[in-house]
Amino acid sequence: MRSANPWKASVAAGILLLAVACGSGGGDGGGAGAAPQKSVGKGEGRVDIIAWAGYAEDGSNDPKADWVHPFEKQTGCKVNTKIAGTSDEMVSLMKTGQYDTVSASGDATLRLIAAKDVAPINTRLVPNYRDVFAGLKMRPFNSKDGQMYGIPHGRGANLLMYRTDKVSPAPDSWQAVFDGAPKYSGKVTAYDSPIYIADAALYLMRTRPALGIKDPYALDTEQLAAAVSLLKKQRQYIGEYWSDYQKEVTAFKGGDSVIGTTWQVIANTAAAEKAPVKAVLPKEGATGWSDTWMVSAKARHPNCAYQWLDWIISPKVNAQVAEYFGEAPANARACRETADPHHCAVYHADDESYYRRVHFWTTPVPQCLDGRTGVKCTDYADWTRAWTEIKG
Amino acid sequence: MSTTSRERGGRARLAALLAPPLLWLILAYLGSLAVLLLSAFWTTDPFTSDVVRTWTTDNFRSVLTTPVYRTVALRTLGTAVAVTLLDALLALPMAFFMARVARGRLRRALLVAVLTPLWAGYLVKAYAWRVMLGEHGIVNAALAPLGLHGPGYGATAVVIVLAYLWLPYMILPIHAALERLPAHQLEASADLGAGTLRTLRSVVAPAVRPALLAGSVFTFSLSLGDYLTVQIVGGRTQLLGNVIASQVTLDLPLAAALSAVPVALVVCYLAAVRRAGALDSL
Amino acid sequence: MHLSRTARIVLGCITATGLALIYLPLLLVLLNSLNTDRSFAWPPSGLTGEWWGRALHSPGAREALWTSLRAGLGATAIALVLGSLAAFAVHRHRFFGRQTVSFLIVLPIALPGIVTGIALNAAFRTVLEPLGIGFGLFTVVVGHATFCVVIVFNNVAARLRRIAPSLAEASADLGARPWQTLRYVTLPALGPALFAGALLAFALSFDEVVVTTFTAGAGTKTLPIWIYENLARPNQAPVVDVVAALLIALSTVPVYVAQRLSSNTAGGRL
Questions:
Q1: Which domain holds residue A212?
Q2: Bridge-partner residues for A160, per DSSP?
């Protein structure tokens, strides 16, 4: 290198790599239109999993939480787990084709299906699917054209939590974190993700019917703009946006946050730590999440993957996961297996009327999910850009 | 040995010495950066997040024209500068004391004390600060008798915590520079009748300046790309790192175009401090 | 230079305050590892040894520690070789682009971790994956080594500048061949610098989160990644505190040894 200019070196290297990069063609989706598997054969001896923290525990973090080793013993499939922190991460990991199965949330599932990264599921090969709550079968976030693309794992609602000593009267509406936010200025919290826009849309759906929002995940440009302006207004009163469990518990316990969205498990933990909090499902209903185990279209160990799917929703294991993670199990028979006999009642697992009020996370797509055809809806990329703009 | 063959031998030895590190850095590092930069000119299928290889400059245009990116970039730059200044302010007297005032055992103990926290784990330290800065944390408890209130979570907290995390990176180079300063040079200055201030200005300052800049390379650039601390104590603020991180899996080309901003800032900064000889005192 | 007594006292006070500020959060970590409360809440509601017991019997933490050690050692070894070679080249030879070399070496650490991380990630995916090499410990080591080179380079280069050239000349005059001079004169003199550089490089690798996140594959969990994941798990926060407290305690040993070895020099350079 003769020149003292570092850029020349980078340009040279760039040209070199240009050849390499361009040579390795784009993702053309190998499993396009793959048919569901016909049968489950002998296990391949291994399965590679992408999961949320707490979904595939092998006892290494908490010796009492171990449902991976019994699976390995029973099936001979060695489990390799990659923990993903966000739905986006799950999507990008699945694109590598190195994983067999993923516990995707509703804000990822449609993207995976559209990109043909996951294969349709033959539910007959998963005997325990029979016992899954009817409210979780054939939903827009886990199926397409009447074909299931995954096995439901569990669900939960995004509740409204508040400090009983700081917030009065007890709120029963999301109004408390939107139009009523100034009252708790600096102490309001919200979930740090573009999908939170749906919470604002849900509130607008009830308070401003003129906007014509039918589904909080199907927003046209104008409706999205209304949600964004509501969230921008809310931002002035936000203390912090939360993304992980730990942050939320400390914030409510310490009094840094007094009102905002939460998950049932966070409310329970905070209450167990003697923080004076309560969580409610407001009258407008709420957004929520439901996770689905999906199988990669390029799965190298499909038989082990199917065995894992059946294992993870088997009554006993589903109960264990649900209690460890803090969610409502998907398998109705799991409710009899929980260590805490009230678990299903606390999480409303078998209360379909409760979950009818919950709008589960669904990936926003250009084809409006509410059936409108004359207009194009905003997609997740739009939502992400909007979220960056909201946070300012 | 004739001059030419000797020169050739020297050249060969130089090539042998340089080839492995340069090959590594160019292939593994510059190559990677080039791949990233290249992908900034591609686009993404909005729904599947697959990268589509069609040439476009849209990503750069949106980075340059979207107001929110400009605000975030400026905020990030401000944070990095504030962290660097705060660290310099703390590190200078501490390094001076450690290198020129403390003696023997104390000196060694102080160095160990400054180096040890580097091992404690970045995340754990950030979370510890989260607890301290909380509404009922010790910061507020300590300030309450003075009638003051801590900064809470937000931009100020981010500056404090980042300054805390990178402080050793500032102390070490300054300490090394001060320690290298020969005692006789300081004495000579005093013998020539220079007062303490004069000595500080004309003997100590020139020696410390490159080291200070070297330390600032760390504090500045580490702050520029941080996104975890912001998540932990940032409240509702976001920095460039957060914006990039939120786009990485969704729209890699846009994330790559956004990455060009801190890269450009750091390269400019490095080029500036290189003139001051800072890269030799790292 | 004569510093007045007042000036010395003031400097001492600032240093003491600075150190107190440095150690306050660390003390809090230690305290929280004994806190009965599970979520870092302040003030602690009581003391318990439960977390220590759980952490010491946590195979996850042990495995992550082992992975981190291997990643750190691998990266440090590569950095030692590459960093020393580059330092020798820059010290011994005058050539065009000499400045560029030091610029290039410092770049990986100067660029934000997230940029380095996603750049390596993108490159590994386009270049390594078609070759059938997946993400794993190997990719982590490559990533870490890249930004560790600069640490070794700086330490060795600084030391080389200080070794009197007369030493090598004397060795040559006494009839030593170049490699003998290297083996018996230069390398021993470099020893402390190599050790200090290696130690800092190792520490840097040991505590790296961001680049690791983007370069580690399934099942490759370094200690910081383990910590990150466990902060998102219910009720694991105090166990993480125990691990951190242990690390702080254990790290004083190598740091102290490094100081002893390098005696009157600064000991470690970044």
A1: 159-262+364-391
A2: A261, A280
